[in-house]
């Protein structure tokens, strides 16, 4: 049997590197799309890197037609919610329109080769925005409150449309997922890198925005595992991928300082109103029952262990 071939977009990010490692370990031939000029930090050497912009639909479609992959993982996105307020057009085009174009490209491959192409759309808890129910499940109405969430909601809905058309397309509603590879643009890594710097006497303050926001923080490699399980499951579907517990940004800060052994840290934490967002979901918590029942998936790393691993990694940074 020929080896499985996978096509991964957004491969230079946190999830892309873990996913590529996982697929290579499974014996999959991995082709990755990364934006021109980017040097993928953690990408395994065996990955075939294609430089390109997902919003160049013609080029991406031609590449996909040429590769005819068995699995397509759409991780590419403008992943910062905060930045989506600065550039809502590009957020719409990358997180929404380009995802739809990729669904169509995968559909065309499945038709041309008369084979199943498994498509994994990386969606986000932000599609729920300010939900009326907690925790959220696959049946929770979509109510995004920022440009990022609205664009992701469109791609999520279109994944369902292509599933109805016959494509093996699953949308993974991923809650926040973290690791030492998380960019410091996100709050968790900003906290752990700054707390580690404070512990080593290299910084004396941590400046944040909304400390009261509550998020369901999971371990990124677990979330990549959920994607692979969904791609290989007999039926495609939508899946909430979460831990079922939320913690405030303030709790994350306290846990990080505690793990780094820094006492009397409260006076070092400041809030800057410019870091507050125009609207920000107050509490996102996911119900992962479907992923557990259907995919046999569950989170493997606790909140405090995630904080500990990230602080420890930042403490050994040169
Ligand atoms: P998001 O949930 O995908 O937007 O992930 P982030 O890590 O960027 O933000 C998580 C939460 O932390 C949001 O509610 C932010 O408003 C809040 N937050 C508070 N201070 C900061 C900060 O300095 N940077 C970031 N990125 N988020 C912050």
From TrEMBL:
Lyase recorded as keyword: yes
Domain of life assignment: Bacteria
Give the required cofactors: NADP(+)
User: What is the uppermost EC class here?
Assistant: lyase
Q: Which Gene3D superfamilies match?
A: NAD(P)-binding Rossmann-like Domain, UDP-galactose 4-epimerase, domain 1
Q: Where does the NAD(P)-binding domain start and stop, copy by copy?
A: 7-310
EC number of the protein: 4.2.1.47
The alphabetical list of record keywords is: Lyase
Family membership = Belongs to the NAD(P)-dependent epimerase/dehydratase family. GDP-mannose 4,6-dehydratase subfamily.
Name of the featured protein: GDP-mannose 4,6-dehydratase
Q: Organism, per UniProt? A: Nocardioides jiangxiensis
